[in-house]
């Protein structure tokens, strides 16, 4: 372990992590001069690429005016503008925004607003949140309580709220052992059954990622799923929270992932792509009708952090949104996403360990299986996902691990490069991935 770095707690203690000296576009360069193609945008975050000067300038300009004001004392022009801009970007408008610093805080704040919405109407028993078994909504205890990610929960289960979970819309290996043609969206019916079992009078909201990210690997639900979910929520007076932390802000080829399904959520959690990694920034957004009882009641959302609505971060986020607009990155995510999916499907023709290739826009994934016919996963002790990630890393390619399979019993990687990726860079990415998968397959067979 290097002496001077010993005080920093890194993901695996004692392991060597290269230090990045700078980044440019889709590439990162470490201080030893090694170049990495960032095919995961870090943690699906750096969506406009690295080292964009406009953002640095916006940051500097705001810092020259004021970097911090406390939200209990003041508001700021960038924060006000950002809240309006985000609302305008949704198809239906009419959203309020509560700014926080991470996706975990965004989902927790959305949860709290949902609970408060019912409290303010004299219905405090509506306080439980239903989520799906295959889900990740954040690492803090409240967000983790809503998450199904087995590995990330395991150590803290006794401290977590025992929130109910329902079947995910994971058609590749359906947890309900159905086939898409004949299932009648049984996974959505599972929500209805859970609500009836628990009692709608105890449930505040249902939370779901439009396309499942870290807990499954770009799992896109079947047609009609979200319409059915929304109808069930409305029937039982349950709010629908879309966790758009990974899917939001152009990543999937729409500004919001939920636009692919034509369903309007009552609350939205945003993070990651909202500032594209240039500063910590996230938001819980709530529709007018969700806020109405609070406006007519206590007039105060009982949450907040020292850095909430930070003007510096809001200015950065506004600059990122302007950059996305100026460079047509929603369309770019659609175009390059289609090309990437096509290339990944060609890889599947060549490599037997590829079970499934899926995704939407530039949020794509590969699931690996021991046997294509039975879709049986590899034994966990083989650590196939880590083998792929580590070998790709050695080759200078960054991909992101996902817990493939319901309850984490599978192997998957997410490929989600910056939305600015060119055709040439995309071919380089696929070439490096091809090599990586070939070598790991040789090792496994
Ligand atoms: N929600 C989703 C869908 C995520 O993918 C993540 C992070 O990966 C989070 C919430 C938590 O965000 P953060 O890591 O910024 O706290």
Automatic annotation (TrEMBL):
CDD domains recorded for this chain? OAT_like
Keyword field contains Repressor? no
Task: Fetch the Pfam families from UniProt.
Answer: Aminotran_3
Keywords of this protein's UniProt record, alphabetized?
Aminotransferase, Pyridoxal phosphate, Transferase
Signal peptide range: none
Under Gene Ontology molecular function, one entry of this record is:
transaminase activity
Q: Does the keyword Transferase apply?
A: yes
* Entry similarity comment: Belongs to the class-III pyridoxal-phosphate-dependent aminotransferase family.
Note the NCBIfam families from the entry. Answer: PRK06917.1
User: PANTHER family attached here?
Assistant: AMINOTRANSFERASE, AMINOTRANSFERASE CLASS-III
Protein known as: Aspartate aminotransferase family protein
Protein source organism: Paenibacillus aestuarii
